[in-house]
Amino acid sequence: MNSDLILLGHGSGGTLSHQLLEELLIPALSGEGLAGRNDAAVLSLDGRRLAFTTDSYVVDPIFFPGGCIGDLAVNGTVNDLAMMGATPLWLSAGMIIEEGFSRKELAAIAAAMREAADRAGVRIVTGDTKVVPRGTADRIFINTSGIGVINHDRDIDGTRARPGDRIIINGTIGDHGIAVMAAREGLDLETGVQSDCAALNGLVAELLAATGGAVHVLRDPTRGGVATTVKEIALQSRVDIDLDEAALPLTSGVKGVCAILGLDPLYVANEGKLIAFVDADRAADVLGVMRRHPLGIDAAVIGEVTATGTGKVRMRTAVGGLRGVEMLAGEQLPRIC
Amino acid sequence: MNSDLILLGHGSGGTLSHQLLEELLIPALSGEGLAGRNDAAVLSLDGRRLAFTTDSYVVDPIFFPGGCIGDLAVNGTVNDLAMMGATPLWLSAGMIIEEGFSRKELAAIAAAMREAADRAGVRIVTGDTKVVPRGTADRIFINTSGIGVINHDRDIDGTRARPGDRIIINGTIGDHGIAVMAAREGLDLETGVQSDCAALNGLVAELLAATGGAVHVLRDPTRGGVATTVKEIALQSRVDIDLDEAALPLTSGVKGVCAILGLDPLYVANEGKLIAFVDADRAADVLGVMRRHPLGIDAAVIGEVTATGTGKVRMRTAVGGLRGVEMLAGEQLPRIC
Q1: pLDDT at A121 over 90
Q2: Is the Cβ pair B100, A32 closer than 8 Å?
């Protein structure tokens, strides 16, 4: 392994990604407002708070059960804004297309983007299209950047988890990653697993309206999965966390594929899930709001913040043991989003 | 030529790009705010006008005389905001990196981005990094999106050219395209041509402060060059335009390479140039402001709007003839920005 080269794992969302960001990209690019470990930057304009985020989507295959690169690109960026407690308003669409790509597929992807934008209540207001010679990109990559407004004065970010907080997820884990992987390997018909790709801004708006300041942190466990996301927040907030394996919502389809392939669903990407850190005494309310929303029917409390600390995350296993949880090391499934 | 496939020319910025946008992408993606033919979308937030734009950069080679993909990505997006009369504030940086890319080159590119951002007075506030397997992208692609504020109540956009307007450019044409092409072909040492890559927001701010409402349209002639940009504006504003070949500022280096290779500099990309459409009676003032600015020393009046019309553009040639000017057809130099 040559440390002078960029490796696939640098794009995993896990340990190597964090190293690359901390050692190279953040120091090099950073102004004081750099989002760093949060999903979006929070910016101030005339006393009004804006959220601004960007994501490039390179998923392979570009069409998979439950979605395609188009709605993924819209929902993913909408979610990054929603995780800062912002109301997403406007998106950009920057496409890099390989020469020879099918116009029909491009049209289908654009239609999926528009449909996802309409469903999320955002508008795609500006765009850019580049075409590169055959063999210099793989079909299509899409960047979406997004702007939202923060219409309240609460701070929701990764540094605000505190001892006692309950950790709640809005549903089953690993669906997106397993759906994409199965499609890539031609197994999609057999597994029946669908991506959970969805916009979470509606659910977040209801959560914040109903439970306000009880929500301390929101984050969507995409690349690197629930394990990496919880570990990130533990480190950002300097707290220790216990997760409860038996409480993790999981479909039998995802469970089955993970068992066969030796994958840990805790590290598999999600695209319609959020993890909320909430006041213990409001956890039941948050759970209630989620379960009444179509995207939160399977919501569950999956753990709690045990103490201030050094960012230690442990899993209480189904058989009662405790094991340490670290970020994703290396790359489990490249090009998952 | 199979019309079901995306061709290199669809990314040229010329005729095919416009067709793809008009026939497929704009109708599919569009909300009412879609920037369409303008460089950025203008959005309203609490009565405050924001500009929002996105661009992906796929230039080959990634380092070229006068710049690299990093400063190009910052300056290009800063310029798109400035062309709407906005003050650029914040940028995002979305990188797609090929597995095996050099960390050292990545660091150099990030440093160039930061330096360009500092020089332009903008901050890179959020980012994203994806790594794709070897052979599925060519080294590095960078998307930058940007937000600016419009601190005045004038409308500067491509629909506002009017009969009598003088057309002014801030300097020599074709430098960026020829520099990149020469570097790609290994001719850079011989030609000595440098990219003009630069942020134009400072020049625009001075222009607007000094000459205010006299400036009707600003646009940077990037892909497709001066010819395509002027034709675009003629069509958007429904006016006819005459350009004056003898007035076009051109270095001997660019002239020489174009002559040898049979390229028309009018179609070659620029990255530190703007075309301004201004009131005839203020043209001398605009020219004066430009020429006192380091990025406008070679500014020149290169044509005028002759009448309302159908978007006809003609070139008065050096020998006194008139020839029609159309948008770039096909693709002259792929991956120029």
Answers
A1: yes
A2: no
Kindly report the number of other CB atoms within 10 A of residue B73's CB atom.
32
DSSP class of B154? -
Contact B124 A34 (CB under 8 A): yes
Percent of chain B with pLDDT over 90: 84
Question: In whole angstroms, how far apart are CA A213 and each of A157, A170, A217?
Answer: 12, 18, 10
What is B82-134 written as a DSSP string?
A: HTTT-EEEEEEEEEEEETT-BHHHHHHHHHHHHHHHHHHT-EEEEEEEEEE-T
Give the Cβ contact number of residue A151 at 10 Å: 12
Inter-axis angle of helices A103-120 and A69-82, to 10 degrees?
A: 30
For the segment B206-235, the average pLDDT, to the nearest whole number, is: 95
Q: Residue B131 and residue A10: Cβ atoms within 8 Å? A: yes
Residue B33 tokens, joined: 């705010």
A95 SS3 class: strand
| Residue B175 sits at the chain A interface (C-beta within 8 Å) | no
Instruction: Note whether B31 and A123 are within 8 A (CB).
Output: yes
Could you tell me if A74 lies within 8 Å of chain B, comparing CB atoms?
no
Closest-CA distance of chain B to residue A248, Å: 28
Interface pTM, i.e. ipTM: 0.95
pLDDT digit string, tens, across residues B287-301: 999 999 999 999 999
pLDDT of residue B9 exceeding 80, the answer is yes
How many angstroms separate the CA atoms of B22 and A89, rounded?
24
Structure tokens at A270: 């999600």
Q: How far is A337 from chain B (nearest CA, A)?
A: 9
In which band, very low, low, confident or very high, does the pLDDT at B37 lie, cut at 50, 70 and 90?
Answer: low
* Contact present, B143 and A22 (Cβ < 8 Å): no
**In angstroms, what CA-CA distances link A292 with A205, A295, A301, B23, B187?**
13, 9, 15, 42, 66
CA dist B313 and B242 (Å) reads 6
pLDDT per position as a tens digit, B146-156: 999 999 999 99
Contact: A95, B56; criterion CB under 8 Å:
yes
Of A6, A102, A130, Cβ closest to residue B100: A6
Gap between the Cα atoms of A60 and B160, Å rounded: 44
CA distance A290 to chain B (A): 29
Residue B28 to residue A92, Cβ atoms within 8 A: no
Helices A175-184 and A252-261: crossing angle in degrees, nearest 10, is 60
Are B99 and A28 in contact (CB < 8 Å)? no
Sign of CA dihedral B64, B70, B75, B81: positive
Give residue-wise pLDDT tens across range A258-302: 998 889 999 999 999 999 999 999 999 999 999 999 999 999 999
Give me the residue from A30, A89, A125 closest to B34, CB to CB: A125
Question: Tokens 């140039």 — which residue?
Answer: B273
B94 contacts on A by Cβ (under 8 Å): 54-56, 94, 143, 145
Once rounded to an integer, what is the mean pLDDT over residues A142-163? 95
Of B78, B262, B70, B266, the residue nearest B172 (C-alpha): B266
